[in-house]
């Protein structure tokens, strides 16, 4: 006989099975496929496939390409993105081809993630949820980029949807495999994020004694996370050591209120570290405050319709996914909250449909007009921020390419080594290895750099207001825009530059 928490969960499931319509009455999947196709095309049209690789993209992509030396791979990173881009990056240098590859995959992934919710919500709600998530500037911008957060988001959406479908129909089948695949995808991309997202699912599975759900979740997390754990022992000295190093790189995890940092990043800042400066215009941040209100309204609607669990679970998972990035880290990036946005999209879409269908009489046209105006304004803001973000990132990546061209004219060509200011991106665009003697990307020493300079060309970059490293102060200096470039005497030269080799 079931009692306690198990009885409550079992009773809730029975009520929701009676209240919720079956998959056959929820419409087909063609609207979801159309949405995914529009999302893919929007990425290619608005984010420009020719957009050069960003800093983090370079780190992930350089691990699998044969055309560039691998950049330093720090402790928090996981190899999932590198494997995702490998089918193209392993044989082609074309950024356009890589962007198209990722745009197509991201559209397909969104389609599959939304399909996992069939039978739980009407198709119109799923399409609206997908459209909301896909129209966010952060989703459009990062969909075709070699970054992990979008993939954690769609993995979370798939895992939660399949978890709820399996609870509604516990017979073995697709939902179990979808649950495991979603968990594996998250852990493959960012193991710690995967754990945060799945905490509510694991608790529910344990409380309800749903062994198969628990096995699917744990199995998926292990399948995606074991490579990261194995690398912890081979490259960082152990799991505890890697976690400690990952915390150090991220500024020390603990109680850090980063809500204001996330707000500052909504204006299009890819990384807000240190997160200073004025807040974006309130019009830009308004949606961020409306989002949780709509999600709560969606929960109220679900409670009244006696289908609480299918709305409460994604809300709980969105909350745990957002917690570390709002309260445990000392900086912000808008992409960090993508999993939370994807999960919140379901109850938000349900609330929007309630707002346009529930009022009766003269209030219904007013409610529909208000929602339509709100969505139009929201879309305008998102596209404006997206255009600004794309332009700014295009300019910065062109600067890296321009600096690489100048270095080539100074004779710095592969094989070579770049150290100092922005060494990783400039080194990649130049075709060189990159090295750092301090900071989060420390991977070499001054002595190793000098020994390398005896074999290949080495250049040390100093940014505006920076101090040149001691090992390079005697090297010839060149001015490239705001940068000072010190190029070591050519290996094997007789010192005709008149400058002694620093030792």
Short description:
The chain crosses the membrane at residues 126-143, 150-168, 188-207, 214-230, 286-305, 312-333. The chain has 503 residues and is mainly alpha-helical.
Structural shape: globular
Helix proportion of residues, in percent?
A: 55-70%
- The number of distinct β-strands equals 5
Side-by-side strand order of the widest sheet: 2-1-3-5-4
Helix-strand string: HHHHHHHHHHHHHHHHHEHEHEEE
Instruction: Compute the number of structural domains.
Output: 2
Structural class, by secondary structure, is mainly alpha
Strand content: under 5%
Count the helices. How many?
A: 19
Q: How is the quaternary structure best described?
A: single chain
> Cα-atom Rg, whole angstroms?
25 Å
Could you name the ranges where pLDDT drops below 50 across 5 or more consecutive residues? 1-26, 495-503
- N-end to C-end Cα span: 79 Å
Largest sheet: 5 strands, mixed
Global mean pLDDT: 91
Describe the fold and architecture.
This is Integral membrane protein. The chain is mainly alpha-helical and 503 residues long. The chain has two domains: 29-358, no CATH class; 392-487, no CATH class. It contains 19 helices and five strands. A five-stranded mixed β-sheet has the order 2-1-3-5-4. Helix 8 (149-168) packs across helix 16 and helix 16 (338-357) runs antiparallel to helix 17 (363-409). The protein is globular. Mean pLDDT is 91; it is low at 1-26 and 495-503.
């Amino acid at each position: 006989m079931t009692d306690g928490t198990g009885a409550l969960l079992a009773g809730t499931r029975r009520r929701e099975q009676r209240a919720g319509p079956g998959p056959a009455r929820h419409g087909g999947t063609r609207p979801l496929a159309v949405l995914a196709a529009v999302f893919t095309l929007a990425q290619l049209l608005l984010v420009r496939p020719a957009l050069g690789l960003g800093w983090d993209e370079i780190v992930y992509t350089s691990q699998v390409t044969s055309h560039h030396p691998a950049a330093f791979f720090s402790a928090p990173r996981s190899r999932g993105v590198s494997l995702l881009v490998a089918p193209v990056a392993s044989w082609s240098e074309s950024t356009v081809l890589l962007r198209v590859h990722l745009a197509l995959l991201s559209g397909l992934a969104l389609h599959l993630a939304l399909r996992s919710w069939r039978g739980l919500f009407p198709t119109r709600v799923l399409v609206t949820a997908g459209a909301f998530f896909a129209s966010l500037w952060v989703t459009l911008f990062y969909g075709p980029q070699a970054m992990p957060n979008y993939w954690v988001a769609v993995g979370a959406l798939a895992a939660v949807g399949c978890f709820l479908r399996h609870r509604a129909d516990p017979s073995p089948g697709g939902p179990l495999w979808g649950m495991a695949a979603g968990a594996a995808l998250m852990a493959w991309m960012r193991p710690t994020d995967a754990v945060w997202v799945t905490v509510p699912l694991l608790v529910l599975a344990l409380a309800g004694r749903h062994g198969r759900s628990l096995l699917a979740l744990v199995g998926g997390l292990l399948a995606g996370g074991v490579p990261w754990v194995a690398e912890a022992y081979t490259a960082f000295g152990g799991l505890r050591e890697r976690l400690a190093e990952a915390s150090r790189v991220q500024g020390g995890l603990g109680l850090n209120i980063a809500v204001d940092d996330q707000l500052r990043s909504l204006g299009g800042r890819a990384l807000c570290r240190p997160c200073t400066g004025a807040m974006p215009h309130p019009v830009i941040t308004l949606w961020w405050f409306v989002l949780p209100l709509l999600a709560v309204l969606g929960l109220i609607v679900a409670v009244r319709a006696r289908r609480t669990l299918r709305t409460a679970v994604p809300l709980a998972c969105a909350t745990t996914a957002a917690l570390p990035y709002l309260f445990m880290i000392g900086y912000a990036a808008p992409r960090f909250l993508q999993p939370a946005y994807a999960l919140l999209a379901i109850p938000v879409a349900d609330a929007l449909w309630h707002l346009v269908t529930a009022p009766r009489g003269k209030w219904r046209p007013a409610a529909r007009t208000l929602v339509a105006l709100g969505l139009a304004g929201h879309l305008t803001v998102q596209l404006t921020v997206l255009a600004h973000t794309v332009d700014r990132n295009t300019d910065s990546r062109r600067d890296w390419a321009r600096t690489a061209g100048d270095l080539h004219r100074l004779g710095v060509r592969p094989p070579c080594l770049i150290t100092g200011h922005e060494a990783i991106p400039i080194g990649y665009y130049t075709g060189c290895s990159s090295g750092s003697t301090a900071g989060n990307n420390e991977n070499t020493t001054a002595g190793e750099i000098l020994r390398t300079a005896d074999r290949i060309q080495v250049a040390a970059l100093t940014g505006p207001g920076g101090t040149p490293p001691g090992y390079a102060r005697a090297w010839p200096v060149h001015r490239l825009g705001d940068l000072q470039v010190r190029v070591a005497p050519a290996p094997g030269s007789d010192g005709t530059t008149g400058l002694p080799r620093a030792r």
